[in-house]
Amino acid sequence: MRNDKEQDIDLVVHNVPNQDNVVIDKKADERQLKLKLLQSPEAKIQERFSDKNLDRRNEIELLSGKVINLDEEREVLQKIIANALKDYSPRVPQEYYRHIFRLNNWVIPEGKIREKPSIVGRFTNEIIYDRYNKSVLPELKRLNPYIKLGMRNFKHFQWLSEDGQSLFDGYIQDAISVMKECSDWYGFRIKHSEKFGVTFQLNWEKEKERATK
Question: With 0-12 CB in 10 A as exposed, 13-18 as middle and 19+ as buried, what is 2?
């Protein structure tokens, strides 16, 4: 008794159109086609789990067309993110905060700047942490979530490895160097973005003002 699958295969075989170059031995040709049809599900499974396909499954293609390799992203995180939280010690120099206050025309307190507007945290994310690979800041936010609005338990840099902290120190000094050359915050953000490739959204009103100067 022939099962439904074999009957379906026979139907496919007998409906294959004849061509001039079809082999004369039709029986042998039918056997070859049946074998191919019977083996195709297994072949698809093997192809799915082949090294080439596994490599493709580790990649994500963005709408922009850019392909992100998840294995490479994981290697970056392992290099930049620490295995465990590090003890806190001040890492951001007061000079960095003083320039932020100056460029924004905020009143600079005497002595150490302890209280800072909450937007300063966003500034630091954009001009410092955004210079890392794009997967780093989201991972830091995951490891160091808000405990209440605008407040986290730790500083992001406490979750950086030695390599990550070394880069952090360099990024801070880069920012300070550009700040020294600027007289306002918007001008600094433009110059910093151009120099280090950090994404910054232009303000068209300010751009019109700059164009008339």
Answer: exposed
